[in-house]
Design a protein that fits this description.
292 residues, alpha+beta, Protocatechuate 3,4-Dioxygenase, subunit A, 2 domains, five-stranded mixed β-sheet, four-stranded mixed β-sheet, binds benzoic acid, binds fe (iii) ion
């Protein structure tokens, strides 16, 4: 077969991949070709625009290393990560909604005792975070592993400033107590822009978009027999709740970070400065084929 034109090339490519041995590879390849060709037919790029597109993807790849994943950021900012998340996390009532992991999770976060301060000496307004981990119908899950991480009051994560701070901070791993409960102290996080000094930042600017995420605390909660929950709790009232650059905000994940005057804190600590209080009760979805 030869002499393909605008009207015949798509079928020719589809025919060429029709014998793929793996049915899933065949399905994905066919859909990719159909949608890519439809995109090009709709946009009708000039040769120069097509080269610019290739250059954008090339620079996106070149920006990636062991600390920076520009392709995931591209997926996040185009809403694809949240679409994949939505497809893969249908939830029963009572299970906490999910969001994208983001680039700032660190496997090696220190295990801390419940109630500890995880701010790592960072300056900011004190914040106590309390909550529970339970099944969708409210049965506690003792011993659940709770990873938490968040930005500082300037909107930076420890890993973005490691050369200055010299150690990890504002992140830790806890184990839920016998009632599925947990609490810890840290500092109040701030809204922050996603890394926007690369191709994705240029794309956002060209699209007339800002790079900001509303303030949030990340949680990753795991327990045997349950799907691992990746989520955040956003600060009510944040000005970016309706324009989160990665489309991750859900009403059920917004809570007031309540301002409190000095006095007895919810965990019994005597606070002599004002602080903030955040509470969230999480529900874990039982894993498929689990007897829980
Ligand atoms: C974050 O919340 O840490 C994040 C998520 C997606 C992209 C960039 C940052
Ligand atoms: Fe974040």
């Amino acid at each position: 077969m030869r002499n393909f034109n605008e009207n015949t090339i798509t079928d020719a490519v589809l025919e060429r991949i029709a014998n793929a041995a793996d049915p899933r590879i065949k399905q994905v390849s066919e859909a990719l070709v159909r949608h890519l060709h439809a995109f090009v037919r709709e946009v009708r790029p000039t040769q120069k625009e097509w080269e610019q597109g290739i250059d954008f993807l090339t620079r996106t790849g070149q920006m990636c290393d062991d600390k920076r994943q520009e392709f995931i950021l591209l997926s996040d900012t185009l809403g694809v990560s949240m679409l994949v998340d939505a497809i893969n996390h249908p939830l029963p009532d009572g299970a906490t909604e999910t969001t994208v992991l983001g680039p700032f999770f660190v496997q090696a976060a220190l295990e801390k005792q419940l109630g500890e301060d995880i701010s790592g000496g960072m300056k900011g307004d004190p914040l106590i975070v309390t909550g529970t981990v339970a099944t969708p119908d409210g049965r506690p899950i003792p011993g659940a592993t709770i990873d938490v991480w968040h930005s500082n009051n300037d909107g930076y994560y420890d890993v973005q400033q490691l050369d200055d701070i010299g150690h990890l901070a504002m992140r830790a791993r806890f184990l839920a107590d016998d009632n599925g409960g947990f609490s810890f102290w840290s500092i109040k996080p701030a809204a922050y822009p996603v890394p926007h000094d690369g191709p994705v930042g240029q794309m956002l600017e060209a699209q007339g978009r800002h790079p900001w995420r509303p303030a949030h605390v990340h949680f990753m909660i795991a327990a045997p027999g349950y799907e691992t929950l990746v989520t955040y709790v956003f600060e009510d009232g944040d000005k970016y709740l309706d324009s989160d650059v990665v489309f991750g905000v859900k009403d059920s994940l917004i809570r007031e970070y309540k301002p409190r005057e000095p006095g007895l804190a919810p965990d019994g600590w005597q606070m002599n400065v004002p602080y903030y209080y955040l509470n969230y009760d999480f529900g874990l979805k039982p894993a498929a084929n689990s007897a829980t």
